[in-house]
Amino acid sequence: MRLLLDENVLKPLRQTLISLILDHEVVHLLDLPGWSGTRDESLYPRAAAKGFEAILTNDGKQMERPREVAAIKASGLHRIEYPHKHAGLAGMAVAIATVVAGLPAALTALEEADGQRLITLRGIDPTPASRLRVINPKTDPPKHWFSSP
């Protein structure tokens, strides 16, 4: 499958994806001469004409804009969205983790699809309470934790 990463997708994500998703062509829009700044209404038909089959974006408002929805529908392209609401290093880590964890299953679903699909990858919660389990062995020793003499 030919997958186009939208301009709003972190550029370092492409290298991660091409290392992990070997049976698919992954192209970042910014690597295509003359494509930077293409409006979404023009991007979808242009990408379809160039043989792309899916677009990965983090533009969560795209499906709220009627002209963009019409362009997506008319293009026949699969649309894969991932949430990205965090800034800085944490934001980049969440974006990469979300896409790496969900994209392989999404691509499998698209290969088996009998028509256009719209997929939203579920985000990973970066808050410490959801990502970490911290144990204080002094107050809550794990099984077989031996005290020092």
From TrEMBL:
InterPro entries: VapC45_PIN-like. Residues 130-149 are annotated as: Disordered. Pfam families: PIN_10. Residues 1-78 form the VapC45 PIN like domain. This is VapC45 PIN like domain-containing protein. The lineage of its organism: Bacteria, Bacillati, Actinomycetota, Actinomycetes, Streptosporangiales.
